[in-house]
Amino acid sequence: MAEAVGCIIAVAPGRMRNVWYPGHKAAYMTKSQLKDLGDVVTERDVMFGKEEEQEGKVDEEQMVDVQMKLLPPARATEIMTAVIPPEIIFYRTPIAVQEQEASPESPKLLRTPDIKTLLQPSRPKAIKIYGSVSTVDISDSVKAILAQHEEGVRIVLGPEDVSIAEVSEDDSGVEPGRIKALGNFAVDVSVKGGEAIRRTVTVKAQEDSETESQE
After folding, report:
1. Distance between CA atoms of residues 141 and 139, nearest Å
2. Global pTM exceeds 0.85
3. pLDDT digit string (tens) for 201-214?
């Protein structure tokens, strides 16, 4: 029931609840007002005031449904071990390195390297890339692989579940949470409560992707 310009009219419960009442176009009749009117046939909106309660029940049911579909950590680890390939390949554009010409020095200033310097193994300099391969990229790639498995699609995986095993402060091209160079890098993938599995992330030059697609 609603009151409008001195009139009392019957309104469909849904329209009153969802349109008229929220828009302040009508108001519900109180018990005292109905008593003063005498014998008037009214229809009670049984859902009034219960919307939040119903929404809470729906959210709770959805949460229970999701929890029932999640796999135990041991089973999730078993599937990841079987499904995720040993090597996950990414393609990035390398940064061109221009060789700088050595500045001319006087022969008197040239020094002969000592024996310790000569005996140190030379480490190849990392070829840096534009952008990076982050743990987000790796987790997205792994999730795409798992989505093709009947049970793997039920595994919840995020960037926080991926860690790059070799992180150093030198010029290796590896930073916390991201790879910034070409090469092979060990990563660990795990679900909460499960054991980590190690895989290799290979970052190749973008032109290698074009060459492989033509073969």
Report:
1. 5
2. no
3. 999 998 765 555 55
